[in-house]
Design goal:
Order of helices and strands: HHEHEHEHEHEEE
CATH topology: Rossmann fold
Strand content: 25-35%
CATH class: Alpha Beta
Number of strands: 7
Distance between the termini: 34 Å
CATH superfamily: Vaccinia Virus protein VP39
Radius of gyration: 16 Å
Largest sheet: 7 strands, mixed
Helix content: 25-40%
């Protein structure tokens, strides 16, 4: 259950998203009902893959307008959140939103995962890496260096993962499926972990 404060924060998020969408293209989804379900509810559903939270560091790759990272941070304020987004216009929105909501322990990095994975300060840093916008082939080769020993890569997908795919040193440990309301489709959370954590 969301607290009154969390509901208010999500309302402000939606309001600012609409305001900024009039000036820059943050998301193609613009109808309030679709935004609520396809962005907010779908992002919050990712929390199923965080249980139990054993470490608070989470990286959201290609976060765009902050999904799913910022809604997850609103739901779990204890998360140490890093939002990765190369678009300067979108990162300007993210920084504005973080300031508006007074979010602590949230950092925006305006880079690509290909660059971040080589930086020493990010080596083995993240307990959770999540992506919703990028295809798995764009992400997998760069995950191992930044993922902690017990870390998890969470892929937010529309269909299950092909078992024949090369997972670049990771292994699939679980897939969680759920349906979005109002017939907006089925979603799958694919959870991968380092193969060496066996």
């Amino acid at each position: 259950m969301l607290t009154d404060r969390q509901v208010t924060e999500l309302f402000v998020y939606g309001r600012e998203l609409n305001r900024w969408n009039e000036k820059i293209n943050l998301t193609a989804i613009r109808q309030d009902k679709e935004v609520a379900v396809k962005h907010f509810l779908d992002s919050l559903a990712c929390s199923k893959a965080l249980v139990p939270i054993y470490d608070h560091s989470l990286l959201d790759i290609g976060t765009g307008a902050g999904f799913p990272g910022l809604p997850l941070k609103i739901l779990h304020p204890e998360l140490d959140l890093t939002l990765l987004e190369p678009s300067l216009k979108k990162t300007a929105f993210l920084r504005h939103l973080i300031g508006t909501l007074h979010v602590r322990q949230a950092v925006v990095i305006s880079k690509r995962i290909q660059d971040v994975c080589r930086e020493p300060q990010h080596q083995g840093r993240f307990a959770y890496v999540v992506t919703r916008a990028l295809g798995i082939v764009q992400v997998l080769p760069f995950i191992q260096p930044i993922l902690g020993k017990r870390g998890r890569l969470i892929l937010c997908r529309a269909k299950p993962l092909d078992d024949r795919m090369d997972l670049c040193g990771l292994r699939k440990t679980k897939e969680l499926t759920y349906d979005l309301p109002y017939g907006y489709g089925k979603r799958v959370l694919t959870i991968l972990e380092p193969a060496t954590s066996l």
